[in-house]
Every structure is written in structure tokens, then in C-alpha cells.
Write a structure and sequence with these properties.
elongated, 1 helix
């Protein structure tokens, strides 16, 4: 009888040990799967970080006393970071954007601008550009609009620069932009141009660009109304009065020597 009980207890213990072993084996498998999955994700992120396909396109230029940074990316961006001469970084949030434009004030001395584009996929791409500012002209040209006499449809555009003008452009309302280059006959610091406007309200936008690439944009509303024309002449001892007006004439009043 004791032998039977001992055999049954032994079988019961063996079953319990086997169940415990299976439980820990299951936990180990699950934990291993988690580790493998986590490592795969980290590896995936790292692979994207080393991927050099479809890199963001960064264009860095200068506009007056600012550096202009334009970024086009096929992937969603997270941040745009920049610094001068590896100094403290400035972070510009770009969450979910594929295009960003930023104007950054140029330092007084020659400096190198470092730009880092961080993408949502974990990739970070760095770009560098040196800006030479010492001895460079950063003064914008000036623009003057002379409307002349009241109701005159002709205006005079004058653009001047302290060094040398390059060209001007003008645009009236929804018309195409027209470029006017400096004539060799003109003073190199000045561009003059006479423009005839249509009757009514004209939204004039003039852009002046000097040889150093400095830009000045001037926008102005100019209203032109037709000037009534009056012509007096003597024919056969008679005073002939001729009056013209584009909108028509309602009434004419003539005063001759108080009569």
C-alpha cells in the first residue's frame, strides 16, 4: 500500500515539475519574441538613419542681411536645427511638414551655417554653408514713385543704390512681371523708368535688385482718373472751345469777362 502511494506521489510531483517547466519555457519564449521585436525595430530605425536615398533638398542663399534656408523633403520632417560656427543650436519645429523656409540673420563676421534636418523616420541629415559677410554690401536699394501731376497716367520709377544697381521689375495688378535692366547710358547707381498706367485703380509692385543681390520690394496703390481736355483757339474772330472727356460731358459753363 505504501509503495502504491509513493508511486502516485512521485507521478504527481513529476507532472507538477513538468507544468512548471512548460510555464517558464512559455514565459522565456514570449520574452525572447519581445526582445527580437524590439531589436528589429531599433535595427529598422538605424537602417533608415543610414539610408541615403531621397535625401532632403536644402537650398541656402542670401537675401540682404539674412541667410535664407529652404528645405524640400519627400519624408515628413520633425525639426530643422541650425547653428553658426557650431555654437548653440536653434530648433525650429517642422512636425509633419515636407517644406520649410526660414530667414536667419547673418552675423557680422564670416561664419559657417550648419543646418540639420531631422525626419520622422529617424534620419538626420546635415548641411553646411560658409557666408562671407566682411566687406560685402548688405544695404538695400531705394525706390521712388513719382506720380507727376494729378490724374496723370504716366508715373516715373526711380531705383537707386549706394554702389551699383542691377535691374528692377514691376507688376501691375494681375499682369505678368516685367524686368528692366540698367542701361549702360545710365548712371550705374540709378535706374529710371517711365510707366503708363490704365485708368482706374492700379496695384503696382516694384522690386529693385542691386549688383550685390540686395532686394527691396515696394507696393503702392495708384488711382488714375481721366483728365478732361479743354482746348481754346481763335478762328475768324471767334473763340472756339473744344472739350473732351472719356466719360461724356454733362454740362459746360463758360465765363467771359464776368459774363
Amino acid at each position: 500500500m505504501n509503495q502504491i502511494l509513493m508511486v502516485e506521489d512521485k507521478k504527481k510531483s513529476t507532472v507538477e515539475i513538468a507544468n512548471i517547466v512548460k510555464f517558464f519555457a512559455f514565459i522565456t519564449i514570449v520574452f525572447s519574441i519581445f526582445l527580437i521585436g524590439h531589436s528589429s525595430y531599433a535595427m529598422y530605425k538605424s537602417t533608415l538613419g543610414r539610408n541615403t536615398e531621397n535625401l532632403p533638398i536644402v537650398h541656402m542663399s542670401r537675401k540682404n542681411d539674412n541667410a535664407v534656408v529652404k528645405v524640400n523633403s519627400t519624408n515628413d520632417m520633425v525639426n530643422l536645427k541650425y547653428s553658426w560656427n557650431n555654437s548653440e543650436e536653434t530648433i525650429i519645429p517642422a512636425e509633419g511638414k515636407k517644406y520649410i523656409r526660414e530667414e536667419i540673420m547673418l552675423p557680422i563676421e564670416n561664419s559657417t551655417l550648419k543646418v540639420i534636418v531631422e525626419e520622422k523616420n529617424g534620419r538626420a541629415v546635415q548641411y553646411n554653408k560658409q557666408y562671407i559677410t566682411e566687406g560685402i554690401d548688405t544695404t538695400k536699394p531705394s525706390i521712388n514713385i513719382d506720380e507727376g501731376e494729378k490724374n496723370n497716367s504716366q508715373i516715373k520709377i526711380t531705383a537707386t543704390d549706394e554702389t551699383e544697381m542691377d535691374y528692377i521689375t514691376y507688376k501691375v495688378n494681375d499682369s505678368d512681371e516685367i524686368r528692366i535692366d540698367r542701361s549702360e547710358a545710365e548712371d550705374k547707381k540709378t535706374i529710371n523708368y517711365v510707366l503708363k498706367l490704365d485708368i482706374g485703380e492700379n496695384n503696382l509692385v516694384v522690386t529693385a535688385v542691386d549688383k550685390s543681390g540686395n532686394i527691396h520690394v515696394h507696393e503702392q496703390i495708384i488711382i488714375v482718373s481721366y483728365k478732361t481736355g479743354i482746348n481754346l483757339r481763335v478762328e475768324n474772330d471767334e473763340l472756339l472751345v473744344e472739350i473732351t472727356d472719356v466719360d461724356g460731358i454733362k454740362e459746360v459753363e463758360v465765363n467771359l469777362n464776368g459774363v
